[in-house]
Amino acid sequence: MTDPTDTRDTGPRVGTPLWAFLAGITVIGFTALVVAMLRLDAFGLVELARGPLFWVLAVLVILGELRPVMVSSATAVGGTYPSTMFTFAVLLHFGLPIAVLMQAVAVTMNGVVTRKSWHRVMFNVAQSTLALTAAAVVLGTFGIAPSPAAPWVPSGTDLLAIVLAGVAYFATRATLVCGAVALHERRSITRVMKATAGPQALVYAGLLGLAPLVVVVMNHSPGLVPLFVAPLAAVYFTATLSMRRDHQALHDELTGLPNRKMLIVSTEEALAEARQEERVGLFLLDLDRFKEVNDTMGHPVGDRLLQMVAHRLTHSVRPGDVVARLGGDEFAVLLPSIRDAHAAREVAARLRAALTEPVRLEGMTFDMDGSVGIALYPDHAPDFELLLQRADVAMYLAKEGRTGVELYQPDKDRNSPERLNLLGDLRRAIDNRELRLHYQPKVNLGTGTVQGVEALLRWRHPVRGPIAPSDFVPLAEQSYLMRQLTAYVIDSALEQAALWWHTGLRVQISVNISARDLLGSALPEQLEVGLARYGLPPTAIQLEVTERILTGDQAYTQDTIKALATLGVPLALDDFGTGYSSLIRLQRLAVSEVKIDASFVRRIAESEDDDRIVRSIVDLVRSLGLRSVAEGVESDEVAMRLAQMGCDVGQGWLFGRPLPAAEATIWLRDHSETGAEVEFGYQPEVSRSA
Fold first, then answer.
1. Complete DSSP assignment for 5-60
2. In terms of Cα–Cα distance, which of 319, 187, 324, 207 is closest to 255?
3. Which is nearest to 323 in space by CA: 297, 298, 348, 346?
4. Which of 52, 203, 470, 533 has its CA 20 to 30 A from that of 296?
5. Is the separation of the CB atoms in 474 and 511 below 8 Å?
6. CB burial of residue 76 (10 Å; 0-12, 13-18, 19+)
């Protein structure tokens, strides 16, 4: 099972603590190996090699070195190799030189087969040689010095010597390997030992405990030695099955990266061990234009792209950093130790640089990019959930502003502790369907007929009472709940539209969506499925987006807008006049309706400036062949002025306040296209001519 986050084959930089440690152990270990070889009796080795036992043991050691026995918490140090049992048996029976020779050959062959880097192979040879040497020294203190010419067979009285030799062997290997892992991943050796020593000790105890039995069998019936493969195979496959279950529970199936559950565990460990002068960083990364690959080449190619992205990310971070996939095209990166915000930005820039390299799949080249949000502990949050939420806020700002990388900024986040509690309540309200839609009519200013209704979200909190949309909608917009909230509103609006349309009230419902909803591919798919489920035409619903979409780069939203146009769902531009829109962008945007912000409409009777602004907007919208809608119409005088300007539709308290579904149904039946016109102070042109 390949771990894509394994970067141990990357050579350490010269002069670093890891380089010094590996170099020192390698030199000491190979010195011990040379000394052992100089003590080797060449004649005794030749005589030993003439018998089948030597070759049987050599084959078992080599095969046992190819695949380790893995336990769930021992992955950091690579597991335990079954060859340990046979090399320790060789040490007990034939002495140190033969044991280190077999072990060195087996480790080298393992490196060739598994394509390990040369520095890892040399370190493994060195640390295994030192472990065997430590065990031989302990045996020597008990007067035990076996050789090919004088093999040693243990008895019951030698139990203490064997146990102490096994302890020395395990302690040496565990210390050296855990030390290398700790330096490689910049973690404390204590933490690595706690995570691995216990499970490793159990496996080593079993393997080393069987070694004396192997020696006894070697001495009496050498032909029975291969039978020890059977219990080893049982241990190996049992551990493998357990490891696979643990791996599936903690890793993403497609990419092999850690999933959210493992990310939580890793983050909590990093927070618990964070030093006062250092920070813990959590990045949230979302791919840009990933939908293009799925739509153009299909999901299998999209899956391959995600695997390539996972590989690039894991090889763009430092050893010990954790890259996780949270789902879809969203990834997270945990930096257990980072100096400051500047260093975090450097890592984020390196991640984006890796992503921007062109990807070639199925004969096509794709240009990828990503937006990264950064949150730091303890600067921005004290725990995982809050770190993730604030990294999400920063990531959205990076995507919205097309800056690529953004550090969390408190002044751009409305999520105070009180609002965070409110966010949790909002999530539960969505799950329990406690939110309700009220409907405000939109009336044709020329005919007095109903042109549709706008769905406005209302929430009555069980404890706090009514909560204004201005308090919870922006909160959702800056969090992971926005898509869920939009999905809830659209489904509720479609359900209500179906009740009206199938009973003869063919009223279009307008639904507000955020610019963030246009950044993903879920919106068109949800609408298509919902319209089909309720048996509605695309014109039964209209989506309203704010003018802010025109002030930013539309590259990220263009695909969704095109998909909505293909589906036939009309789009309206809300709050027009409050931003700094480009007329060219307005012309290119596939909208059918422009809504003039209420802040201008309400004052047209008192302010000549507002009157000129609204008149100009109406003329502009008409010249582009679009429908104009005035919000905030609250008096007859304002309605009359708007009608004289040529504004098409009015919306405001003059015509009706937002009403619950049941009351809105009664109102619509009284003012539907087949019924009476909406009555207000001045007479529409159609009424006067009639």
1. T--TTSPPPTTSHHHHHHHHHHHHHHHHHHHHHHT--HHHHHHHHTSHHHHHHHHH
2. 324
3. 348
4. 533
5. no
6. buried
User: Beta strand 369-377 with 436-444: parallel, antiparallel or unpaired?
Assistant: unpaired
Q: Could you report the per-residue pLDDT of 518-538, keeping only the tens digit for each? A: 766 778 888 999 999 999 999
Kindly give the pairing relationship between strand 627-631 and strand 405-407.
unpaired
Q: Among residues 266, 289, 291, 467, which one has the least CA distance to residue 371?
A: 289
Q: What's the pLDDT band for 615 if we cut at 50, 70, 90?
A: very high
Distance CA 640, CA 279 (A): 62
List the structure tokens of 548.
Answer: 């802010």
> Would the CA dihedral through 199, 200, 202, 207 be positive or negative?
positive
Integer CA distances (angstroms), 247 to 257, 311, 393, in order: 10, 18, 30
Say which residues have a Cβ less than 8 Å from residue 176's Cβ, sequence separation at least 6: 25, 127, 130, 131
Cα–Cα distance, 371 to 396 (Å, whole number): 8
Torsion sign, CA atoms 11, 12, 15, 18: negative
The answer, as to whether pTM is greater than 0.90, is no
Q: Three-class SS of residue 653? A: coil
What are the tens digits of pLDDT across the range 14-63? 778 888 888 999 999 999 999 988 888 777 778 788 888 888 888 888 88
Under a CB-based contact definition with an 8 Å cutoff, are residues 188 and 182 in contact?
A: yes
**What is the Cα–Cα distance from 362 to 360, expressed in whole angstroms?**
7
Distance CA 26, CA 134 (A): 15
Supply 503's token pair.
């009973």
Cα R_g (the chain), whole angstroms: 36
Q: For 249, what's the count of Cα atoms within 13 Å in the CB-facing half-sphere?
A: 8
Find how far residue 685's CA is from the centre of its chain.
58
